Amino acid sequence: MAVKHKAQRAAAGAVLDQLLKYVDKDPQANLLKLMDKVQGIVGNLFPAKSLEGIRKGAEDPENVWNQFAMSILRDIDRDVIKKMFLALGLHAAYHGTKTVRENREKYQCNIPWIILLDPTSACNLKCKGCWAAEYGHRQSLSYEELSEIVRQGKEMGTHFYMFTGGEPLVRKDDVIRLCEENPDCAFLAYTNATLVDQAFCDDMKRVGNFALAISIEGTRESNDARRGEGVYDKVMSAMDLLKKNKLLFGISVCYTSQNVDAVTSDAFIDLMIEKGVKFGAYFNYMPVGHDAYPELIPTPEQRKHMYDWLRKMRNGKTGKPMFVFDFQDDAEYVGGCIAGGRNYFHINSAGDIEPCVFIHFSDSNIRTHTLIEALRRPLFQAYWRGQPFNDNHLRPCPMLENPDCLRRMIEETGAKSTDLISPESAEMLCAKCDKFAAAWAPEAEKLWASREHPHPKTQYYRDTPEGKREAEKQAAQEGLAQVQNSIGSLESKKQELESYLADLNAQYEDLTNSISELSIQAAEKEDELNKVKTELEKAKKASADQYESMKLRIAYMYENAGTSALETLLSSESLAEFLNRAENAIQISTYDRNMLDKYVSLQKNIQENEKKVETESAEIDNLMTERASKQQ
Description:
Layout: H1 3-25, H2 27-42, H3 48-59, H4 64-75, H5 78-107, E1 114-117, H6 131-135, H7 143-156, E2 160-163, H8 172-181, E3 186-191, H9 198-207, E4 210-215, H10 220-227, H11 231-244, E5 249-255, H12 260-263, H13 266-274, E6 279-284, H14 300-314, E7 323-326, E8 344-347, E9 353-354, E10 361-362, H15 371-375, H16 378-386, H17 403-413, E11 416-417, H18 426-431, H19 434-449, H20 465-559, H21 565-570, H22 575-631
Helix pairs in contact: 1-2, 1-5, 2-3, 3-4, 8-9, 14-19, 16-17, 20-22
């Protein structure tokens, strides 16, 4: 700690001692005056609207926030209040925020306000659905590594550290040592609380800058079903011990589709307040790890319930004196996703530097890269450039609500899975989120459009001069790409039209040939018809002539003859004449029969030619009709 900062800390500590003594004389009457003093110390680090809301609460004894403040003054040790306020107010908020902003400009990357780290993968429990439970006693960070993380973090401006795991209190001696050596930092451990004892409470009170967030699932039945029989009672006993020692602690609640009603019930919250809980960190269940259950992801209706419940709980008139927050449903207050170093990142027990405690991918490790180097590597740069992942901050996460964003970042950066047991691809992880993301999107849009939202004081990469230039460049490139696509599309259409025109020409040529062929066929048919008509006329004339000849002959032989054929034969003067006349009669009869047969054949031929004329005429009509239709 710099000499200047030590002097400021000593002065601020002395002032806080006096203020707390002053408030203790009459907490309700002097609370408002304390607020004025606090505002003078922290300056403009917090939005004026927020401070005004706190001030109004301090003025009203019935206000939930007034009751909350009274409970802090009543239940928390004065030295703990002072040390935690110095760590979070003076060092983290005042000095740290300035340094963080300066380093963001200097290094052109995200710089976190909080760092989460796993001292160990070891845990004394094996909770269902917890990825840490799968790891066992496989990995741990040495104390020197933990200390180095804090040293580098403070250089960046980070003065708030949260221990996850595994069970951090497996390493409670190292955790307490780290708190003791860094009084300018605030520390918090997410814990199952089963290792809390009086000796540890004494250590917590001595260092003062350390708080706990105790994992709990709701009722005894639901808690023990996931964490093991008897754990719930151990947690209740730990809370009683922490409250008795006037220590600061809260709860960490993973809400699921199965327990969301239980962990938001009045009975549960009232019990937690009675036990001394001051804050509740609520986490949407994330389907991380090979044993994850996507069906435990809360439904869109349950997410909306959480959104409304949180705001009801924090309302000064309708809430309860316990501060609750949810990183999914409260993302609108912090500008969306806070991972990837924007407000925090995570270091696992193997030293892998991950963008989020729920996203186990990395391209850097504390044993090969400094924290600044990791923040400037591709994975964290992708977060820096990509945030916010959705302008609707009710859909903040690149995994749960926008899974395609995480798919793209992992693919583009080549980051690797850090799962110690069963590495899973980004596709495997995101596929477990696709269904919920699709179902939540329309509901989130309706909810977002239905009310006003805060405008947090935050700056994204897209708002920086570099980001704006990059956006302009990208817009120009996209415009150029659109023009090139348009040109390509026009070229494609040109080729399609040319091909179409060629097809039309070919069809026209085929049609012309077809019409010509039809004309030839029609002419040929016309010639054939004329020939048939000529032959028909000849046949009709021959038939008529023959008919007339036959009539004359019959009239001559049978109608005009004076004697009968028999008389003619009998009048013969000799046998030779008789035979001759008989032969002539036979020949005449045969000739007449042949002529009759010929006449019948001629009539039949005439009928056939008449039918042929009708057929040929019909075919010619059809050909002419077909030609006319093709010419149209």
